[in-house]
Design goal:
CATH architecture of the largest domain: Orthogonal Bundle
CATH class of the largest domain: Mainly Alpha
Radius of gyration: 38 Å
Number of domains: 4
Largest sheet: 5 strands, antiparallel
Mean pLDDT: 84
CATH superfamily of the largest domain: Porin chaperone SurA, peptide-binding domain
Helix content: 40-55%
Low-confidence stretches: 1-40
Distance between the termini: 45 Å
Strand content: 15-25%
Number of helices: 21
CATH topology of the largest domain: Triger factor/SurA peptide-binding fold
Structural class: alpha+beta
Shape: extended
Amino acid sequence: MLQNIRDNSQGWIAKTIIGVIVALMALTGFDAIFRATSHSQDAAKVNGDAISQNELSQAVDMQRRQLMQQLGKDFDASLLDENMLREAALKGLIDRKLLLQGARDAKFAFSEAALDQLILQTPEFQVDGKFSAERFDQVIRQMGYGRLQFREMLAQEMLIGQLRTGLAGSGFVTDSQVEAFARLEKQTRDFASITFKADVAASKVSDDEIKAHYDAHAKEFMSPDQVVIDYLELKKSAFFDQVSVNEDELQALYEKEISGLAEQRHAAHILIEVNDKVNEAQAKARIEEIQQRLAKGEDFAALAKEFSQDPGSASNGGDLGFAGQGVYDPAFEEALYALDKDQVSAPVRTDYGFHLIKLLGVQAPEVPSFASLKDKLTRELKTQQVEQRFVEATKQLVDSAFEASDLSQPAQELGLKVKTSEPFGREGGEGVTANRAVIQAAFSPEVMEEGANSSSIELDPETVVVIRVKEHRKPAQLPLEAVADSIRKHLAKEHASAAVKAKGEALMAGLRDGKIAPTAAYEGQSWKVQEAVTRNQDGIDPVELQALFRMGKPEAKDKPLFGSVSLADGSFVVLRLDGVNEGSAATDEEKSAYRRFLASRAGQQDFAAYRKQLEAKADITRY
């Protein structure tokens, strides 16, 4: 528990920034807020701000996908209540709209520079610890966002985050509250339990029961809303074989490539600065003295260590390493390139002072042959042409698809093949139909209901598609045989749970009226005794612990209290609370953690109250 408190007491930015980017969007899918809709397509209005039907549909789709990810193989779409999903999604959208309005009314702001830094520092957008624009585009594209849409969404989430922090961070608690919480937190309990395991396999479910449940819950057993799409896929790579380059173009690019190559010169120098303490005449006289000592045969590196005032190179004998042209001061560079190997220049004046320059060596550039660069140069020249062809073809595809009544005409004009997908729902499918933008387009009113071709959809920088709904499979009643197994499992668990609950309640009744001794075995099961159990005791189901610590304190050791709880697997546990033990005194560190936790909880309660207040005062219309 203490670790949980520590975790929960940290700042919201460190704990939720990725959650804001990923989890909130996964839950509610807000990208449709960037699209204008007519009033006839509104799902709700919040103080005059519209929430579109398209936005609501996408939020429902995202919730369904989130459930699929959480439940995995256990997910059964037929058991979902579509109305409940829509209601929950709409409530989330309304809450968000209210909070955005509250943040703006409170004059919260989030600068573009801060937003840039947030994006640059997000690990999901980095490769090898550095921001990658390509990775950024890939991640947000999978979410169905363009760059501007994502920035707008993120800025809005940051505004809500600031509002949340401002309210939640204002919570505080008294010393007495901390002390009381510490006593409860450190408390331990002595108890015993008997667990009645639900035997699902032994539960018999008749066909009549299955049929009755199916008839009573018919609306729960509907097939999902699905479409089959035709689509045209335009890939940039397909144009590489359609363009060519000639030898003259390659040769010109080769010459340009090698023109930037130049020899590197290895220099060393001795610098005497001209500054507030040393005037030009004094500096010049000192450099000339050093020049004379060099002429008498003294070592350049030794004199550089003794006299040079360049802190970066003096300790290394004045060595500046290899460098090409354009690195040094023009006067310094001119003198350096006039020297032969091991020759020392006359004094050279620059903005820094006077230099003696020695050429230690020359490194000739390695000029690659034309043959070694030919493939690379060919790709570069082709890439330029392909990019242009791809842009032109994309525009042609968009224009042709807009004018055509199906995809056969644009396919013929561009030499493409019309492909057909497998049926998929609003949670998406595989391949092209896993792309969020494709799903949104397929289920949009224009494409699904009006039968129009979509605009171009960028799957990645190399691929665009245009889609058309070939078939719309509306929700329909699933046959009994398709859902009989899931109903059988559901009812078998219900029966098994009811059976063990009846056993447990019979034991509880006997214990309370004294017909069964508190420590007596029951139906062959003995009590499992555990002492000094903490609130986060390992090896005990958290639901069982929660029920145990909600029980009152026994009057005496010989007067235990009894309780019960049902577990997620259908088991039923009878609890016997024998005693409550006061724990050791909390340390200062623990008290600090408790204080942070309680303050955070109080702040969250304040934030929840603020949200209710916004809702109570708001003009909300649901259509």
